[in-house]
Specification:
It is built from 23 helices and 7 strands. The chain is α/β, with parallel strands linked by helices and about 550 residues long. Strands 1, 2, 3, 4, 5, 6 and 7 form a 7-stranded mixed beta sheet that branches. The longest helix is centred in the middle third of the chain and has 44 residues, at about 200-245.
Length: about 550
């Protein structure tokens, strides 16, 4: 389904961007239209829906960006592109200049291009640009307009060249035998970074790299907030609390009580925002440079043992930013691994809000280093959970697209990605958490909060946890940063608990269920039966693994 559409009028040209994954369609779309929602990522499957916008230099040309084709799998993204391909529109084939012959032959073999109005754009001209003689020969063989561009650095002249290509599109008539006469590209196939090719050390280094992607931002956020928090308390929060204390008791409880909007809300912002910001910066940097794909490719042999492939790890990594976006990105997974991938995201991908909340709780308990084993156990148990519940065979699947190039950062695209994460946090995450604080304060004031204790009593009793922890467990079902309410009373609840109890409580709040928004998204994407099935299996794995962890911690301490 298109994000938006317009009724075409006479004289308008409808153009579909068609090509394999990672060829630069989204970057081209953004440059042609100025549409920021199509921020290009150097990651396979980053386009998860059809985007439509008018060309900024020629409003009569309407361009539709479609997900990259994966002919070896039955992914939802590929089907979406094929469905749009059936329409009578101009086709702009986007191929890599370094793989022009091979990709055109593949597209000719798999698609019914005969009778379609087609133009060709070859991207990555900075990697390989054929001589003028070869360019002319390619155009003569194809009998089509062809332009060579670099989507990361397009000036007005390059945009006008692409527009001219579109306007001069011709009916496709090239057969496979003609395509075989296209000049071969004297360019080496892009290979895995050498250090990741090592038999055992390569995957281990890839694991360490992924761990560092999230551990370093969390550590940096911890150092920053540890310095900032006492300053903010002294010069900002304490004066506000002193002033609000003069208000009526009911209002004071809502604003600065145990679950106060000001006290708990400011604490949430102080700890969560730096984590969200720094994780967004780190993931955007690895996407832009292309190294993220190399890391997941190195882990492909290990991931196949739990029913996934290397490309399935990309949405899992995205899940550490936002689980909902990650679930959408699984549209690029094969149908036989998509459920497994979603299951791992729901269980083991701690979103940036959850990470910020978890760090704040461990810090309030004066044990911030607990975050390291927490993150490690979360991913390990998530992998075991995926292997136990999803036994689909991934070994028969092949790697679909070539590895992206390691390249310089497009700072404009980088800034858009980070700004998008900040905007989502400020306009969606924080307002929702403040509403949670308001609800918790009102329920506590009217004496209804004890109902939560009754709902969570079986789990709390099973693990010998205090009933006062019930709101944190319940609110974590709504949003994962809802577990921040465990900081109520300036952390007084946590001070009365042992470190083992705190670790088990945070682990349960993180894994007992995905948040409601994620479960709702899974239901829309995979069906409500699958959503309930994934949720039920996750709950069982969470309780059993928490019991094992509790036993180990009791034995050790």
């Amino acid at each position: 389904m298109l994000d938006y559409s317009e009724v075409s009028s006479p004289g308008e040209t409808e153009v579909l961007l068609i090509g394999c994954e990672s060829v630069g369609k989204s970057g081209l779309f953004r440059e042609l239209t100025g549409e920021k929602s199509a921020v290009a990522r150097n990651v396979k499957g980053s386009t998860i829906a059809a985007l439509e916008a008018s060309c900024k230099l020629n409003p009569d040309i309407h361009v539709t960006d479609l997900p990259g084709l994966q002919f070896e799998t039955d992914s939802q993204n590929t089907q979406l592109t094929l469905d749009h391909f059936q329409n009578e529109k101009t086709i702009l084939l986007v191929v890599k200049a370094t793989n022009l012959k091979e990709e055109l032959i593949e597209l000719q073999t798999e698609l019914n291009l005969k009778g379609k109005r087609v133009a060709v754009v070859a991207t990555h001209r900075d990697k390989y640009l054929p001589s003028q003689v070869e360019q002319n020969r390619i155009r003569e063989l194809l009998q089509l307009p062809v332009a060579w561009i670099n989507t990361r650095k397009m000036d007005k002249a390059a945009l006008e060249e692409v527009i001219t290509c579109i306007e001069q599109a011709e009916t496709w008539g090239a057969s496979k035998s003609i395509l075989n006469f296209l000049p071969a590209t004297p360019y080496a196939v892009n290979q895995l970074i050498p250090v990741f090719r090592l038999p055992i050390a390569g995957p281990l280094l890839a694991c360490l790299f992924i761990f560092a992607m999230f551990a370093l931002p969390v550590f940096g956020a911890f150092l920053f907030v540890s310095w900032l928090e006492p300053i903010a308390d002294q010069y900002l929060l304490d004066p506000i609390v002193a002033w609000v204390n003069q208000a009526p008791a009911f209002l004071a409880d809502i604003l600065i009580g145990d679950y106060g909007i000001i006290t708990l809300g400011s604490y949430s912002f102080l700890w969560a925002f730096p984590v969200v910001l720094l994780i967004s910066i780190m993931t955007s940097l690895t996407e832009e440079t292309g190294i993220q794909e190399h890391v997941t490719n190195a882990l492909d042999p290990w991931l196949r043992k739990i029913g996934l492939t290397g490309r399935d790890l990309l949405p899992v990594i995205t899940g550490f930013g936002c689980n909902v976006v990650a679930v959408f990105q699984t549209r690029g997974c094969s149908s036989c691994t998509r459920t497994s991938c979603v299951s791992l995201i729901a269980f083991g991908s701690a979103c940036s809000y959850q990470i910020g909340a978890t760090l704040s709780i461990f810090n309030a308990a004066h044990a911030p280093l607990l975050f390291i084993p927490y993150l490690f156990i979360l991913f390990i148990v998530g992998a075991i959970h995926t292997r136990i519940w999803n036994r689909d065979e991934a070994n028969e699947l092949t790697r679909i697209a070539p590895l992206p190039y390691i390249q310089k950062i497009n700072w404009q695209a980088f800034a858009w990605k980070v700004a998008g994460s900040i905007k989502q946090f400020l306009l969606q995450a924080m307002p929702i958490f403040l509403v949670i604080c308001l609800v918790a304060s009102v329920l506590q004031t009217v004496g209804v909060l004890s109902v939560f204790s009754w709902l969570a009593a079986p789990i709390l009793y099973l693990f010998a946890l205090p009933v006062e922890a019930a709101p944190g467990l319940i609110f974590s079902f709504i949003r994962k940063d809802g577990l921040l309410v465990l900081n109520e009373g300036q952390g007084s609840l946590l001070m009365d608990m042992s470190l083992s109890q705190i670790f088990i409580l945070v682990y349960l709040a993180s894994t007992l269920s995905a948040c409601l928004v994620t479960l709702f998204t899974i239901g829309k994407e995979l069906g409500w039966k699958n959503s309930l099935s994934i949720g039920g299996k996750q709950m069982l794995t969470s309780v059993v693994s928490a019991a094992v962890l509790a036993g180990v911690l009791y034995f050790l301490f």
